[in-house]
Amino acid sequence: MRLLEKVAVITGAGRGIGRETALTFAREGAKVVVAEYDETTGRQTARDIEGLGRESLFIKVDVADREQVKVMVDTTVERFGRIDILVNNAGITADGFLTRLTEEQWDRVMDVNLKGVFNVTQAIVPVMLQQAKGVVLNASSVVGLYGNIGQTNYAASKWGVIGLTKSWAKELGRKGIRFAAVAPGFIESDMTAKVPEKVIDLMQEKTPLGRLGQTRDVANAYLFLASDEADFITGAVLSVDGGLVI
Question: Which of 14, 28, 48, 192 is the most buried (most CB within 10 A)?
């Protein structure tokens, strides 16, 4: 097993890519902390992990709230004694054209997608420094790399995640901590369910592999980057988009 006895914290693990990543890590031997704002979906993911015969811990957390993040980290260390892997997956959208985008929409997306990554990473890195080893994986997006109509705030947040990833990789590489970002394309999930069907059809037509991605495609990318097989990879941004932006 590629993550045997590793302790992984995954934010936004109640549904979609986060849930699939949590289950994938558990199948590979990890103990998984399901860090999720939605208590119903979070507890369900934790139960499903335990059904696989693996240890799991659900913690309700708003990643934009620094005090809640601190409690999450303290609770994790108290239970498992260490944190080997962090997947900053939690994210939201609040789309709107530039001329109509509200300050509240901007702030809400930035608080979760960018400040949340900062909050959780800053709280967990000291644990990894004590271990002299750790992996932090951040959720970016093809939209963060290339922009998208009507997603000013989302694109900015996901581009910002890449900046954090590369900066931290340079800063903490010699301390034994690796960082990487994954940039999914259009993945069948709750988030893409909000996208008009004609847009989905267009994206599928433009994708060389001829289909939308599945949550398992992204989870498998996270699995590789979290494993010792990727031990010489840091600061990278891995696109998982079926060739959409070739």
Answer: 14
Enumerate the β-bridge partners of residue 85: 8, 135
- CB neighbour list of residue 101: distance below 8 Å, 6 or more residues apart: 152, 153
Given the residues 37, 146, 154, 222, the one annotated as active site: 154
Question: End-to-end alpha-carbon separation of the chain, Å?
Answer: 33
Q: What angle do CA 60, 8, 87 make, to 5 degrees?
A: 75
Taking 3-state DSSP, the helix, strand and coil percentages for the chain, each rounded to the nearest 5, stand at: 50, 15, 30
Task: For residue 201, give every residue at least 6 positions away whose Cβ sits within 8 Å of its Cβ, in sequence order, or none.
Answer: none
List Cβ neighbours of 120 (8 Å cut-off, separation of 6 or more): 9, 11, 35, 63, 69, 72, 86, 88
Condensed to tens digits (0 to 9), the pLDDT of residues 159-217 reads 999 999 999 999 999 999 999 999 999 898 876 777 778 878 888 888 999 999 999 99
Which domains does the chain carry? 7-240 (3.40.50.720)
Q: Is 222 a catalytic residue?
A: no
DSSP structural state of residue 213:
B
Query: Per residue in 188-201, pLDDT tens?
Result: 887 677 777 887 88
3-class secondary-structure state, position 217: helix
Judge contact between 137 and 85, C-beta under 8 A.
yes
For residues 144 and 157, give the distance between their C-alpha atoms in angstroms, rounded to a whole number.
7
